[in-house]
Task: structure prediction
Amino acid sequence: MPADKSPEPESDERVVLSFELRREIDQIIGGNHHNYCYQCGACVAQCPAARFSDRFNPRLIMLDLLLGRADKLLAADSPIWLCTNCYSCYERCPQDVRPVEVIIALKNLAGRKGVAPDSVSLLTRNILKTGYSGVVTPVVHKTREKLGLDPLPEPPVDEMLELLDSGSDERDASAGPREEKTRERSHGETPAGNASQRRKK
Amino acid sequence: MKLAPFLGCMIPIKYPQMEAAFRRSMPNLGVELVDLEGFTCCPDPIYFKARDALGWLTIAARNLSIAEEAGLPLVTLCSGCTATLKEARFLLGEDEELRARVNERLARIGREYRGTASVEHAVVVIRDEIGMDAVRESVKRPLEGMSVAIHYGCHLLKPSQIMHVDDADYPSILEDLVTAVGATPVAHQEELLCCGKGCLDDEMPVEMVYSIFSSIRNSEADCMGLICPTCFSSFDLGQIVVGRKKGVKFEIPIIYFFQLLGLAQGLPLEDVGLHLHKVKADDIVARLPSPA
Ligand code: SF4
Ligand code: SF4
Result:
């Protein structure tokens, strides 16, 4: 048999289809493009995470999503964190599935469930505290001065915080948007124009 | 031409030399930079978006609304800012319901997103608005004999249906710019590989950086040219760390495009901040002809 990375259900393991995860992802993304994945693997071809890690394959992530395997995708050691966010899969997918957006939505869900890695929360917290993603140390000011640059502007953090959901969990960066209505996105300039036409309401 | 720079976070905080090079080289292309007040982080298209997608979109819309109010085109210096702001524009443009939800939130601070301000990375503005001729005319010291391995990074080009910058598989914008400043672009096997910064793994980014630098070393380029501070953060110190792990020594200076432009316009090495980089470019700069 040729090597195939497809997960064969073990003989005594029944795969139970669940729509719960898909529904949650639909809400975050505002569409259900992912339902159109036909498992062709085009997204794998140029995926750097698949090239450099045996643990990662965007096609299998899509399959697990369609099967509703939240236990795998939202586990602490989920492969989603290996994705480099390079958008090659978005570029390649003939079905306009946008796997990277699905992975980002899964990361949002992981954040809500409190299983996102610390570095993600740390960066978000920096931004919400100072308006900058990085930490501003005295060295920063000195380097800028030496280069003849103006002092660093102070971003209006309060204004920015006003924009986050008043449900306080977004303010402390521990949650994504809630209660969002599922909607399909229309879009004119997709490479898979026909596929997206089909999906338009 | 008047442009409002959107500097983002990484450049002004971590790599202000990139800001200095940009601010010093753009006026030589006939550009007046108009700094607007009130920007925040774009916000970050990887982590912040992975944490709170709608918050991410709304904060981006707020930043865009500042340029709308001023009636000026935004020009970005970082591929990440470009990705966030252009994607926000795309999403808000294609989906009225989503725009309404974002505007509901913006109304809390008396702002509105209308979609009237354009946003592009500075290299795209140069190619499409300012023109390569203006670049060539600004050059006082062509970077003759300098071979530059291009690193595109991901977010300038992809997804192409949003970015509309170049062919994502066969791009030429950076080659053209490097040529315009008199240097020689060098093709190499991994020039389109991601820098690996978005990956939360200890091993994988090491292998990716190693692959890229092995490929550049084979190409015998003098340095790497890029346009993204995130990629830079993987590569400058990164090549030293990765080299140590792999038992090889890479010494490939990483030069931001506006530093190349500044050098070609005759600015001294310190003015474009190259002395702040871990891997020094002194040798290759010393080989350049003196400014005319
Ligand atoms: S390229 Fe698209 S349709 Fe094919 S497997 Fe990947 S996500 Fe599914
Ligand atoms: S965005 Fe993630 S899944 Fe898509 S090709 Fe890049 S690394 Fe792979």
Remarks:
- Chain A touches chain B through 68 residues (CB under 8 Å).
- The pocket of iron/sulfur cluster (ligand 2) is lined by residues A 47-49, 58, 83-89, 99-100, 103 (CB under 6 Å).
- Residues 167-201 of chain A have pLDDT under 50 and may be disordered.
